[in-house]
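Reviewers of the previous submission asked for a worked example of the structure-prediction workflow described in the proposal, so we include one complete record here. The input consisted solely of the amino acid sequence. No template or homolog information was supplied to the procedure at any stage.
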Amino acid sequence: MSKGLAAAERALERGDYGLCLRLLEPLAAANPITEPEGATIRMVMVTAWMGQGEERKAISTCRLLTRCKDPDLRNRARQLLSVLEAPSLERPARWSMQLPTLDMAPRVGKGSPTSRRRRQPTPPPAPPTGPTQAPSAGFAVLVLTVLIGLTLLLSGCVRVTAEIDLAGPDRLAMSWRINSLSGHSLPWQQNFAKALRSEGLNWTVQQDKTGSLNLISPMLGSDQAARLMRSSVKLAGLSAGVILPTPDLSIVERNWLIGVQQQLNLRLDLSPLAEFPAGDLQVSITPIHDLERVSSSPITGRLKGDVLLWTLDSGSVNQLQIRRWQWSPLGLGSVLISLLLLVSFLLQSMRVRLGFGYPELPS
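From that input alone, the workflow returned the following structure tokens.
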């Protein structure tokens, strides 16, 4: 396989894109894209397709390569995809020189001068283009400057706050607040809102022109809230062009009659966002009282009044575990009534022992 790949790369350097693709097609059939060798082969094929002008094949393969395991190939595929999907610009008319139309019709009484010319032999086919030249240092500096500028411009472009309200045993409500720091609605926010409405998820979607997108859910059980969060995170990733792992939200409860012991577990894998500016991501949980244990990683949550604020780290696996105790008014009332009945029974027993007998109605 290495000999065939080396021969294809030499053909690519000579500009013979057809030979390069013919050498790589059997190698691509034998090595799937999920393997490192298959991803390398398809990256060379993308370059050859770009040389032939077959942009559709190059774009479809680049999109698959953005999800490969090799980070170097992922970055190269994203860079090529941004170039291939860039809009084409119109060439101004003043940049081209137009020749006047010549009257080539034969005149009466005069022979055509071209007929008297000696016919030239058919020219040979044009040879393939020369070897691909590496970009100059000035071009590399320009590209690096543009990329750094875009990173600084896009970093922290949104602030996402997810609020979880623990209303009672196995009952909670969620709300997401997505605010654009630029003061204008972003295309990602608009696509995300349209996707939520089309899927019919159990959200109340509120959006305004200042770049604020609010999602509010009704009171849900823990299983319903977990399904809603998984579907919403999937749509958010697709709207941004990123595949996010499925989040995990679960609530484990133990009922002790007088109260309920709750344990909330939340796991968010944001490792695909390591190379993207994800902005400010935060989770807030209310109400937080009678806490027994709080653990979070990689960033520790902090208490602010009756609210637990937990900042997420894009590019890492974020985990949160909360254990709290919640008193049950119904259970406390039942225990109090039982105690009153017990005291009444003890007093009645003492009255009988003292010889007063049971209380009687007046005759």
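Residues 33 and 39 are 5 Å apart (CA to CA). We consider this example representative of the routine output the project will generate in years two and three.
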